[in-house]
Amino acid sequence: MAVLILTLLVVFINRVQVVQRQAELASVRSTLGSLRTAFVLQHLHREAAQNQTGAALQRNPFELLERRPSNYFGETRPGELAAVPSGHWVFDAVCVCVGYLPVDATEFDSPSGDVMAWYRVEGATAGPLLLTAKERYVWQGQVMD
Q1: How does pLDDT run across 79-123, given as a tens digit for each residue?
Q2: Contacts of 90 (CB under 8 A, 6+ apart)
């Protein structure tokens, strides 16, 4: 009976970990979508206000959100990245990039071996800013773009 309970417990813990990783991945994708939407809204706002005052361009997409994610660590510099807790977002003002440090990086792969997923803030003046992955990240078998 003890072996059966132990086996069921191990299977249950394994399934919980899988679900937690999937939930983290879904949360990351949702946050990226929110940041991209914020850039589009900023662009539309700037276009509408162009004849008036010319709204300032915000390159940190987290500043455009009505509410920042609870796991937004803040702006960092390259030397401060060691202080970022896992499962948190950062904005690097030097490279103008958004970064995410996965909670469990065992299924996270980047060509450079970086443990964080980085997305550059890019774009022209004619359209909204974009978030583009610095590398081809693969996480849990899915490409993170």
Answers
A1: 888 899 999 999 999 989 999 999 988 889 999 999 999 999 998
A2: 72, 73, 74, 75, 76, 81, 84, 98, 99, 100, 101, 116
Contacts of 89 (CB under 8 A, 6+ apart): 31, 62, 69, 71, 72, 73, 98, 99, 100
Spatial distance between the Cα atoms of 72 and 75, rounded to a whole number of angstroms: 9
Residue length, the chain? 145
Which amino acid belongs to residue 20? Q
Strands 72-76 and 137-139: unpaired
Asked if 85 and 103 count as a contact pair (C-beta separation under 8 A), the reply is no
